[in-house]
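Consider the following assembly input.
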Amino acid sequence: MSKPLFGAFSTPEDGVHRLGPMQTIEVPQRRFKEDEVVDYVVVGVGSAGGVLLQRLARTGFTVIGLEAGPFWDTERDWVSDEAGSYNLYWNDLRITGGEHPLALGSNNSGKGVGGGSVHWAAFTPRLHPSDFEVYTRDGVGADWPITYEEIEPYYELLEQEIPIAGPAWFPWGKPHGHPYAPHPMGGVGDTLIKGCTKLGIPVSAGGPVAILSASHGDRPHCIYRGFCIQGCKVGAKASTLVTHVPDALEHGAEIRGSSMVARVSMDKAGRTNGVIYFDLEGKEHFQRARAVIVSGYAIETPRLLLNSACPGHEQGLANSSGTLGKYLMAQAGNVVLGRFDELIRMYKAPPAHALTEEFYETDPKRDFARGFAVQTVAPLPIAFAKQCMTSKALWGWGLRRMMMDYNHWSTLGVLGEILPWEDNRVELAEEKDRFGLPVAKTFFGLHDNDHKLIEFGTKKVMEIMSAAGATEVVSESRYAHLVGAARMGADPAKSVCDKFGRTWDIPNLFIMDGSVMPTQGSANPGLTIQALAARTADYLISQGDSVFTTSKRDMTTPPVRKSLSPPGTFSKGAPHIG
Ligand SMILES: Cc1cc2nc3c(=O)[nH]c(=O)nc-3n(C[C@H](O)[C@H](O)[C@H](O)COP(=O)(O)OP(=O)(O)OC[C@H]3O[C@@H](n4cnc5c(N)ncnc54)[C@H](O)[C@@H]3O)c2cc1C
Ligand code: SF4
């Protein structure tokens, strides 16, 4: 073929901002004047922030997204290389503590436009209806202030917008299908399917995952080379950087990269009037706004609000309940490694491509509440080396020998629901960052139910791996996906914000990201976070100017505005065969 299918790929050029081989955005972009008062400032342009900005801009609000990390030009800034992708993560200092301290750094959140959706593996299961009433059903955790039915239309909408590839029939939770056809199986998915089939466990092949199985607009389909967690230079994997940010810019949003928000500012009337942030050179700025939405992730959101303490809000903003920073959650992410005589080649295909949710719900026959999913993991060599070290205590030659055997190993993961506990929390540390701001300190520990669930889940995945034909099976413990720490609720005394993310204490201050989740289920959180963000945007649009002018709390559910979807959303995708 003399010409590539989608035309020749060009190298980075001055004056062109590239989001993939074919996707570009216009430069120069909109820049509001320094002293201009905008309608909304969104702090953090990640999974939630990207969706919020897109919808608010499309409706005609003036909006700025302030993002601590860079505004990626994917052709210039990204490499398909495991070590070279280190800077996609929030690597700034965070302190970890508690009985079972969380590993922070690259196992947590992103920094840069797109946030965590840039480096996510892109598994996109929905929560189950039971997740919204965990306390009512099981007497543990908490109930959400919304039901599954309230978020369902947003799941359906975001699955089209992103779009999601997966089976035409997904049987767990509330059964549903996916707009794009499932992906072919890689070696790791094959082991999950083989093991589950042998044991009679239903399994989903080829998704649900936010990776294109057919081209979509100016994004090509997946080419199965496995650099998804490194950003995906191809543009086949969805991130808000490629799905929602371009449309936000098209409709007049400004995105200011390398802008670290230090404090949310308050006026004398008890309302926020903007934010104080530092640019790359450390120069302080004040961005005035009629309302502020904090979308900084489950660690940085509580950190920012705690750092914004001021007279009248001595314990931090939006913290009259004392729950800000508390009920931080991570999912159990224990990894099971299995050695096969045949070649597996974990690097081929996206890490996320097969799963089972057969153990998701509470089962009275077990001695713990709630459950877990089993998913493909498929690390690249550096992550695999870490797993070899922790699962088999290898070092030196022993480690090298196992590394040389990489192509024969498969990895499957437990994704287990750890319950929200008050003592798992984010606080401010003594240590400060380069702007002089106290950094976050997390405290994390497992409780009895969590221990039992993890033990059962890990054994079950080891059984699956053995049933698939592994000759050696080992495991390592790990956690994944932090959420909570600024939870939404129906009771102002027990939560930080209401069901739309509006803080109970400050009428024009909102929180919208993974930190608002009261429980986390055993589904990866990204799709839920984007669905919640779209719902909050619909609420803000319905409320209009009243958000800026009154303290009245209107809890009316807004209409679902499908007309705000980015262009091309309702295209047909790849047909499902059979
Ligand atoms: C390796 C890995 C794989 C994952 N795989 C999956 C998966 O397969 N499926 C899934 O659903 N989820 C996955 N996740 C989790 C998912 O990425 C996160 O749950 C999700 O992105 C969180 O969304 P958010 O909006 O809460 O925060 P983020 O997406 O992290 O966005 C927050 C943004 O705010 C910015 N920010 C923070 N503080 C400030 C400040 N003070 N000023 C300015 N900007 C600020 C940050 O730089 C960041 O860009 C994965 C995570 C990791 C680490
Ligand atoms: S496997 Fe597919 S989604 Fe992953 S990096 Fe390659 S092209 Fe992107």
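Residues 211, 222-228, 232, 234, 236-237, 350 surround iron/sulfur cluster (ligand 2) (CB under 6 Å). Ask yourself how this observation constrains the way the partners meet.
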